Amino acid sequence: MAGLVCGVDIGGTFTDCVLIGEDGRVAYGKALSSPADSFKSGFFGSIESAGEQLGLSSEDVYTRMDRLISHGSTVATNIVVERKGANIGLITTRGFEDTIRTMRGLGRPTGEPPENLLRFAETRKPEPLVPIERTFAVAERIDSDGDVVVALDEEAVAAAADSLLAAGVDTIAIAFLWSVRNGAHEQRAREIVNERAPDVFVTISSDISKAVGEYERFVATLINSYVGPVTSTYLHGVQDRLADVGFAGELHIMQCHGGMVPLGLGADRPIFTIGSGPVGGLIGCARVADDLGRNDIIASDMGGTSFDVGIIRDGEPLAADDTLLGKWRYRVPAVEVISIGAGGGSIAWIDELGGGLRVGPQSASSLPGPACYDRGGEEPTVTDADLILGYIAPEATFGSKGERGGFQPRRDLAEKAIKEKVADPLGLSLTDAALGIVEVANAKMSNALENEIIGRGFDPRDFVLMSYGGAGPFHAAGYASSLGVDTIVVPGEAASVWSAFGISQADIRYQYESSVVLIEPFAAEEIESAFEELGEEAREALSEREDVDSFEFRRYARMRFQWQRHELEMRLPDAAVTAETVEQVRRQFVDLYTERYGEVALLPGARVEIVSIRLEPAIVMGSTNLQRLELVTDREFHKGSRDVYFERGQGAVDTAVYNGDAMPLGEVVEGPAVIDLAITGIVIPPGTRCERRQTGDFVMTLNPASA
Question: Is the pLDDT of residue 591 over 70?
Answer without folding.
Answer: yes
